[in-house]
Amino acid sequence: MALGSVSSPAEAWDVSHRVKWWPGGNVVPQVEWRHREFARSRQASPPVVDLCDPGLIVVAGPPLGLSTSLPNCTTAVGSTFANGYASINLVSQTAIPNPYVEAVIRSWGNVRAKVDNPPFTTARAVAESVSIVRARGGRDTGRGRIRWSKNWRSSGVRGGAGWARDPIVMTATPVGGGPTLTTTLMSIEGHVTKGTISWMNNTITVAASRPGVPGGPPAHARLDVVMDSPYTVQQGTIRLEVRDGVVIFSEATGIWAGVAVPPVGATSSVFSFGAPDETQIDYDLNLPPGDHDVGASMETAGREEDADGAGWVCPPTVTDLGEGFNMADTSTVGLTSTVFGYSIAAPFTIAFPVRVPGGEIWIPQGVTLPFYQTNGGSSGPIAIYCRMWRGNPAAGGIPIAGDMIMDRYAGDAAEGAYRVTRTTLLNNQRVIRSVTGQLDGFPQMDSFFDVFFEVSLRGNTALPGPFTPPSIPYQASVPNTPPMLQYNAQTLQWVPLLEQGRPVSIPFVLHVHRIILCRADLNGDGIVDFNDLLEYLNLYNDEDPDADLNGDGIVDFNDLLEYLNLYNQGC
Question: In 143, 243, 275, 360, which residue has its Cα 20 to 30 A from 206's Cα atom?
Answer without folding.
Answer: 360
